[in-house]
Amino acid sequence: MTTGFVKMHGCGNDFVILDERPHPLDLTSSRAAALAHRHTGIGCDQLVVIKSGEPDADAFMRIYNPDGSEAGACGNATRCVAAMLARETGRQALTIRTISGDLPSLIHADGQITVDMGLPRLDWSDIPLLRPMDTLRLDVSAGPVSGPAATSMGNPHATFFVEDLNAVPIERVGPLLEHDPIFPQRANIGFVQVLNPDAIRLKVWERGAGLTLACGSGACAALVNAHRRGLANRRAQVIVDGGTLVMEWRDDGHVLMTGPVATTFHGQVDLEAYSP
Known about the structure:
Elements: E1 2-10, E2 13-19, H1 29-36, E3 46-52, E4 59-64, E5 70-71, H2 75-89, E6 93-98, E7 101-107, E8 113-116, E9 141-142, E10 145-146, E11 149-152, E12 156-161, H3 170-178, E13 188-196, E14 199-206, E15 210-212, H4 216-228, E16 235-240, E17 243-249, E18 255-259, E19 262-270
Parallel strand pairs: 2-3, 4-6, 12-13, 14-16
Antiparallel strand pairs: 1-2, 1-19, 3-4, 4-5, 6-7, 7-8, 8-18, 9-10, 11-12, 13-14, 14-15, 16-17, 17-18
């Protein structure tokens, strides 16, 4: 079964996007993992499948990590899908549905795209954590980092605040923290260096994907947790390895993410060449 795909990225966070609206693709988790493999597949941080829209939504978006597990929400992928749908429909305002809820998106005249990532969930049971705990400072540590703040942005996130981001051995401590028993569904692990109240640097070890150039929901969690700690304003730049996102935690509680997207290439893939 040969089908078309689009390779896109938002600040270096890259996606293979398949469109299942014309016909079913029978995309299993193992097949998604094979397609996402950077040496034997197409290669991506996440594989995204667009499905037919439901009432009050323009499309449904399913997100697979490179290990075949499913992600609840992804801000950078949402911006990429919103750009595709805007080109298709000519509309600048769209709603993309995920298993974690609806993500309203707006395409600006300069090509930047804003996604309303919704309300952060801050209770221990919503993230979720293994047991009741103050989510502003978890009793979790690995190597030189400890005491993260936690929130859910459709995915569980733990944010560690550090003095020097370059000094953190992320590839060593990231996997340990992702699989810490306190996170029954694993977690995305963010490492933040606050430059000033209006700018923070971020690196994220993503659940099921590893270290990526950008993480949209991780940027949301970074701003929310930095503001909760009194380290950043409600609106700030989040600087990731692949670019810069503008984040805002509005007074109504919603978190907005604005940033660029780019199309890398279009291609064709034979899905039957990958094990189901």
